[in-house]
Amino acid sequence: xxxxxxxxxxxxAIESISAELLVKNNIRLLMLDLDNTIAPYxxxxxxxxxxxxxxxxxxxxxxxxxxxxxxxxxxxxxFAEALGVPYVLRAxxxxxxxxxxxxxxxxxxxxxxxxxxxxxxxxxxxARLAGITPILVKPIKLSNPLxxxxxxxxxxxxxxxxxx
Length: 164
Ligand SMILES: [Mg+2]
Known about the structure:
By secondary structure, this protein is of the alpha/beta class. The protein contains 7 helices and 6 strands, in the order E-H-E-H-E-H-E-H-E-H-E-H-H.
């Protein structure tokens, strides 16, 4: 088990993660980062593509849960409701505490869970520390210079994997 924040898979968008890949890897629970992974900053509604993708994952029998560092309860709740997915706020990723709590609550082994997110030092690191499969997705949009700088700092870990 590596504690380096290296993703196991890397995708250009959340919708590129197929139910087949998850099923093949015995993933029963997929945790989702919110901002810039399934939600562009500044919007309160998931796209039709994201809604269709969530339905397909759910139909494959995979549990979903949003695990967000956000404190903006209304925004997270709006997305979770639109997608019909439970959520955790203020997860404080890279802490593995909330992902571990979820595993216990949902009675899923760490090996049967994955976390998909757009940031190396929060999402991927949190997944590694919790012993669950890290999936990196390309951020939807780099909306400000600070975010762009942060992604630049993540570059060494980001280029480690090719896009699946
Ligand atoms: Mg994010």
